Amino acid sequence: MFDLYQKGQLDASYIHAVGSDKAEQGMTFVGEMIDAKAKCLDNTVSKETCDSLKVRFAQDCFSYSQLTRTKDPTELAAHYIQLNSNIEAKLHTAHETRIFYLSVPDSAHVSTVKMVKQQAMPAPGSTVRFVIEKPFGASLADCQQRQASLEEQGLRTEEIWRLDHYLGKRGVRNILDFRLNNPKWEQHWNAEHVASIEVVVQENEDVADRIDFYSETGVVRDMMVNHMMEVLATVAMELPGDAQDLAQVPLARAALLESITPLVQDDLILGQYEEYDAHFEEHYERNPTARQNPRGEHAPTLGYAKLSIPNQRWNGVHFGIVHAKGVAERKAYVRIQFKSGEVLLFHIQGSTGDEFISASAPAPPMKMEGWNSFVRKSGDSEEQVLVPSTKSLQAYEVLLGDAMKGDQSYFVTFREVVAGYKAWDAVMEFVPISAKYKLGTPLHTAVQSAAETSPLCAGTACATPVLSTNNWE
Prior knowledge:
The chain is of the alpha/beta class and about 475 residues long. It contains 15 helices and 15 strands. Helix 4 packs across helix 5 and helix 11 runs parallel beside helix 14 (about 415-425). About 35% of the residues are buried.
């Protein structure tokens, strides 16, 4: 939000922070957070100038309201009434756009919306948006029940904004931009020319400080059924007939996800880093009263899934998605292997730096407006590389800016959520881990080790590596 403020995009906007602390303590906390986390976009300004800008940001754009965790409905209602009064005190117009960003556990979404609907709604004729983050449920049945509960509170489709921060990453949005701007490549974007597509997100951090969360979700619920499916949909969806009609993009993503054949257990490889058991035990020794998932010790930290999309465009193409915690490097990319030998790579984040796009030779020319191009050589091979000429924006800056503008094209529809869970619902529960790997193991080694003991590699199915390697690694 500080970035948007510096760009002049918060004019006539006001942020009402909400927390359980009393007002004075809350505003002190807000100030400390701004001082610690906010960065000035202009690196040439002095520290004093930057600090002064942060103070003005807090004064110009922030107020604080207390919402305690009380179970007394009268007291709780009074807090929401006060929140509404604080908001109305800053209004400059009778009709407003009021955005509620629900930074609360997903189990509190419905109760929070209920109180807002009762006590803190804007005047008739205004616009209201509720921004919520994943998880959007723990299973197909659960997400459908949550949607029904939100609708019972009177929420309309246009009021529910499901934020998946991967759809705010420029490295992901580049994929759609590339397809729209490179018709020669798009002509080959089909089963006749593509052999395989891999979506990879790997992280070098472990989950020692997230055991409460991770023992409930594991790798599938944490990343694969949501973030990675949205990336896959962006790669494989049909392009909108009108490139300027971004409202069609969520519909295209949903249609693609609905065409995926539901996974069965043999389509999935699961692994866990060896040190997880110790992290699990240490967490509950330190927190003996914490609620413990009986199956939490089996939470996978690595997952590889083989997907099939038997539609006209992709029938017969191998799709693989993989995510792992605690491996050697942090990076994310999409790798497209063409039958003619070319490899097209969308580097999303991590490892060698910011996002870029590369294509091995021989390949059609690539173009992206405002990007720089160069040829990178390695031995006898070479590849064309595109890099953006500007620094990428933070994903949350992009998506919150979209929410303020009313652009829902990079938010997740309920139809997409349902399609994702329908594809994964049969393999959501924790099962015995295929193999263990040590923290810091290279991703390809960890995946191959797990694959060789899984049903996916029965017979000679994994005589070749499950996951491709890349020249730039």
